[in-house]
Predict the 3D structure of the following.
Amino acid sequence: MATSSTAQVSGRPRTVGERAGSVALYTVAVATALLFLVPFYLLIRNSLATDADLTGVNWKFFPSTLHWENISELFNDPAVPMARSMWNSLVVGVLGTAGQLLVCSLAGYALARVPYRHANKIFYAVLATLMIPSAVTFVPSFVLVSSLGWVSSLQGLIVPGLFSGFTAFLFRQYFLGFPKELEEAARIDGLGSWGTYWRIVVPNSTGFFSAIAVITFITNWNAFLWPLVIGQDQSSWTVQVALSTFTTAQTVNIHELFLAATVSILPLVLVFLFLQRYLVEGVAHTGIKG
């Protein structure tokens, strides 16, 4: 009886007010989606136009002629090694993300599971590093990297960012909620701390690792100030440094700038589309409440 009553209530015709509310909700959703897509439209439009089309008085939704040759012009520009810069960003993004996942997950696991009496003190010290402005550590980091001879090198771009106090904090919060029964069963089977971490904890935490990987990769890809200082040679430029060279005090290459920006965000769009579901899952597993 309760089931049939529920079915009758759910199957009743919607009132005028409910229909109006649904229409208003979908209208707002469509308008928001269109506003979100406007920057992407401008990027694509301006990428395939000429500087005359961009600076002309008469605005057109799309140029009368799409200049696909702008793509070859961008990658053949001798002043800006775009292809090399994107490769450098990809290497920095992938290796930096993998290294940070390994280092910070080990730190978080140790802080959450290793029975050490000073573990809380070390944890608070890690949290204290989050309160130090990056500008304070920028110069000492550069002096250290320079003394190692890593200026204009990929290791100079990657190694200083392998540890993040915030990422270690997120991993600790996650591992505190990880089922201890799985780890105890692994130890009964003869696995040590490293074997338990690598063969039990990591395979059962792929969702959270993927969420952190997405955030870290996007951060590494978008980094600008540190690559600008370290990458003093064109061969070590990242894509963000290459983008900045299209705007100088003398000239502004507008259509190449828009095209380079379009090309540079494609990897981020692909990463986000394939792994976006892990972002929500990862935040939920940290135990952080909004």
